[in-house]
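Lab meeting, item 3. Inverse folding demo.
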């Protein structure tokens, strides 16, 4: 999926960095990198929280289905003797 989106090769990355250097200047690049790092860290933190919540809800859902299955099996065994 990312290969079709991010089809940038080495020389193209170099040109992009050159334009960034010319546009923002050398003194702003560390600040930009720090801001991007914080953004990536926050995005990763949010996705990890979403994954944890989905796993917790998935585990609860599996437990609920197991309880329902046990109730059905118990009812079935009561009806059949």
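The presenter then showed the designed sequence:
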């Amino acid at each position: 999926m990312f290969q079709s989106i991010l089809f940038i090769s080495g020389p193209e990355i170099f040109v992009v960095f050159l334009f960034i250097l010319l546009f923002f200047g050398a003194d702003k690049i560390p600040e930009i990198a720090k801001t991007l790092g914080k953004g990536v860290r926050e995005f990763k933190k949010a996705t990890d929280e979403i994954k944890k919540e989905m796993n917790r809800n998935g585990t609860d859902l599996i437990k609920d289905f197991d309880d329902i299955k046990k109730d059905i099996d118990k009812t079935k065994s009561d009806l059949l003797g």
